[in-house]
Amino acid sequence: MASLASETQNADENSARRREHVAIEGKRILVTGGTTGIGRATVAQLVEEGARVLTFGRDQANLDEALAYARNGKGWCGGITADISTREGVDAVFAAVDEQLGGLDILVACAALGAQPLHEMEEDDWRYVVDTNLIGYLASARGAIKRMEQQGGGHLVFVSSISVEIKAEGESVYSATKAGIQAFAETLRKEIAEKKIRVSVVQPGSVSTPMQECSDDNKRQAVANDEMLEADEIAEAILFVLTRSERTDVVNLRIEPRLQKTS
User: Fold this and answer.
1) Exposed, middle or buried by CB within 10 Å (0-12, 13-18, 19+), for 229?
2) Staple partner for 173: which of 101, 115, 179, 193, CB 3.0–4.6 Å?
3) What is the reported pTM?
4) Is residue 216 predicted with pLDDT exceeding 90?
């Protein structure tokens, strides 16, 4: 009898913990770079869960496709064209946040560019990658924090990369930006924890997105061989991070294919 009572108590406690999970429905969410790849998949899943999502990208055609892809969900999604690497772009995005969302509960920062080795890139090109991949994340976080402070809390999720760990040849510029995001996020969470703003980093391995330089056929084969993940699988990981209890902060979540190539 004592064992049965203990099992019942544990089941009740587990059920109570599940009820503490954060519901996404009705949340006001900004997804940066939500027009392709991981960002696009994340927008769709958040809208499916009932969130109100604003996103943006540099290309109107990609934006239109992403919004159409997401609009079958029970939530709402909208978007603008903007370049997160510029002050003007950041200002436009957060003006849209204020106008269309009326506040911000969650930031999912995805906007990023691939890069060549530093010595193979023109000066303006590698600086643009840094401005997009790193400065854009910082600027987005700053805009989000200002709004989350006013309402008493929120959640920042930064999509980084396992390139921080593997340091693969040919990824010097890209890895530098992702390492910067990692250090920034892990330090920032200590600075704003008392504001009830959580900070998490998701580190994907190889993912079938437009950033991959191989052909679509090669991507499909890599997924079939367990060497690459689909963007939806990273979006599912982001959704997991966002729905933990308010007291839980998933600091780093690394997700990669079973046969990830690391060199």
Assistant:
1) buried
2) 115
3) 0.89
4) no
